[in-house]
Amino acid sequence: MTPQLSAHDLGLWRGGRRLCHGLNFGLQAGEALQLKGANGSGKTSLLRVLAGLGRVDEGEVRWRGELLRSSPDHKASLSYLAHSNGLKAHLTPRENYIFYQSITDNPSGITADEALEQFGLTEERDRPCAYLSMGQKRRAALARLLAVKTQLWLLDEPLTSLDVAGVELVAGLLAQHLKNGGLAVLATHQPLPGRSELRSLDLGTTP
Questions:
Q1: CB of 19 within 8 A of CB of 78?
Q2: Which residues is 154 bridged to in the sheet?
Q3: Are 1 and 163 in contact (CB under 8 A)?
Q4: Which of 60, 109, 111, 137 is deepest in the core (most CB within 10 A)?
Q5: Assigned domain for 144 exists
């Protein structure tokens, strides 16, 4: 069976330095891959490549059997949460969510109030993001995963600044996404509760 997302002898270079090479993996619906490695090992660069934002130096990446750059539906199939939250500081969590949902091609039926309640931000939903704590900003950024219907989640350090309850919330959200036929690639140094079976790829030990 053709993987939904696959990398074939993938290698990445940045500034004349090889970050990683010989990467091979394939993910089907319902599967997730955790990227591991020291700072500078290429986790963020790999996520950007999988999102179609970074340069492929060696090998290739395919989405549903098509080369990523030629895939007609790759962009509409993914949600990418970068290391930065990407929130407009002068807007509230509710306004950020509504704006994000309004510019997507496949919005979900989940409203801003419903998503922010799930992420414990009901009291903060109308407060400008500039005045939120780091953990609250991360929750507001993560809430946008509920704004659209996408199969592929690419998450760069999604647990940053979250407390124990926030980590458990993300773990539950990921579990539900995979149960619904989604797939995910995430870079995180922290273990996800209840995800002991999560596949991993250590960029520091690639051949």
A1: no
A2: 80, 185
A3: no
A4: 137
A5: yes
Q: CATH no. for residue 196? A: 3.40.50.300
**Cα–Cα distance, 78 to 103 (Å, whole number):** 14
As a whole number of angstroms, the longest Cα–Cα distance in the chain is: 50
Residues 72 and 75: their CA atoms lie apart, in Å, by 8
Residue 4 lies inside a defined structural domain of this protein: no
- Hey, which residues does 60 pair with through a beta bridge? 8
The CA distances from residue 158 to 66, 137, 140, 155, in Å, are 28, 11, 12, 6
Burial 97-133 (b: 16+ CB within 10 A, else e): beebbeeeeeeeebebeebbebbbbeebbeebbeebe
Q: How far apart are the first and last CA of the chain?
A: 26
pLDDT given for residue 204 in this prediction: 67
Q: Which domain holds residue 201?
A: 30-53+74-205
Looking at the structure of the chain, the number of domains it has is 1
**Domain-located, residue 195:** yes
φ, ψ for residue 204, nearest 5 deg: -80, -10
Q: What is the pLDDT of residues 114-155, one digit of tens each?
A: 999 999 999 999 999 999 999 999 999 999 999 999 999 999
